[in-house]
Amino acid sequence: MKHTRVSFATVVVLAMGAGLAQAAQTDITLGMQLEPPHLDPTSAAAGAIDQVLYANIFEGLTRFASDGAIIAGLAQSWYISDDGLTYTFNLHSGVKFHDGTTMDSRDVKFSLDRARAEDSANAQKALYAGITSVDALDPETVRITLAEPNGALLFNLAWGDAVIVAPESIENIKTNPVGTGPFTFSNWVQGDKIEITKNPDYWGTPAKLDKATFKFISDPTAAFAAVMAEDVDAFPGFPAPENLPQFDADPRFTVMIGSTEGETILSTNNKMPPFDNVKVRKALAHAIDRQSIIDGAMFGYGTPIGTHFAPHNPAYLDMTGNSNYDPDLARSLLAEAGFADGFSTTLKLPPPSYARRGGEIIAAQLAEVGITAEISNLEWAQWLEQVFRGKDYGLTIVSHTEPMDIGIYARPDYYFQYESAAFQGLMVDLNAATDPAKRTEIMQAAQTMISEEYVNGYLFQLAATGVANAKIVGLWANAPTQATDLTAVYWND
Prior knowledge:
CATH topology of the domain at 261-462: Dipeptide-binding Protein, domain 3
Largest sheet: 7 strands, mixed
CATH architecture of the domain at 261-462: Roll
Structural class: alpha+beta
């Protein structure tokens, strides 16, 4: 037998090298184009809040998986009564908020009562209006009672708007969010970054990362430079799709192209003249060349839509033929409506690239048929105040990234102010239906109705365009909800 002599120094060096090889990176810096206005997902419509906090800081009774399936969250199981009116949830035991207090059924009751309260600021308050009571039966059991069956309840409870919060920390939630998730909030340097840290006392599967930083980079050119310089490790919603081929050719990076729930629409104020006239709304739809918008604003990334529904949903109907590009028809419809000489309106644009770039293209297309769209570029806080809450606009462009949200058309006070008793009736029927075939039939009738009434200009389904260091594993390619879920992300060094 041969023996090899190895010095002690060599052993030490080899051991150190092995240790370094095993010490994978445990922090990550992610680029985000939009900064949240505050950090309470239960009292604002801004998707940027969920983009940081959903699944990382806050959790609900149920949650979205990466493929869009509804899976257990803080509730480990549930029982639905035969009449569909009572849902009894069994909570995980030993769950604590980040401040060390226990999460139990009383917190669930507080959270859902707060979401559906008369003075609630919850952006999706209507989703929870059908709840008649929330009862804490014992610390780990909570019962939700409905006025009528709602086949979408488990889905609705997975939204970021239904995460569980504690009354003890609610006063400062907008600047110091305290949840139950695998990460805790550490720091927010407004205008720059948000930092979160691994929760060492997490009740579930612990995070693999020790720290994550969300870096706010609004300018697409600066976003490209930050990724190329590796100042950020990933940019899940990369705002400059024209640069993606360059990243794809660079072995340092992985380009992720997936689907989102984001119906990008030319939102129209249905109660503001002349948009209260369906002929004007129809003219608007036929004045738009949606493929030119996809090519010009998104560099080809995006799927044309003709109604407010995701094309990857099995119940989707292709209604694009209702609003094919036909400027001559648009001019004719405007003349029939009494606007042969056109008219002027406002086009108020939020910060995302699809809106700013798409707005310039749409304004030029509308001008071709005699509609003058006066562009105003707004920051998100301004857009939420003027457009979403104030309804002070004619047109705007926004991507509705909430999952399966066609129900917003049943809300007359929603910002595009569409009021249809027939559509509201469809949503009542949909909530009551549990048979999959019947639900599909109702959803398709709803898609058809809003398409044929030209409630909005339906442009394209937003693609999920992301870029990341090639060594990062576990980032979502698709976006079944607005989230940067880091719960299973790690470095494969």
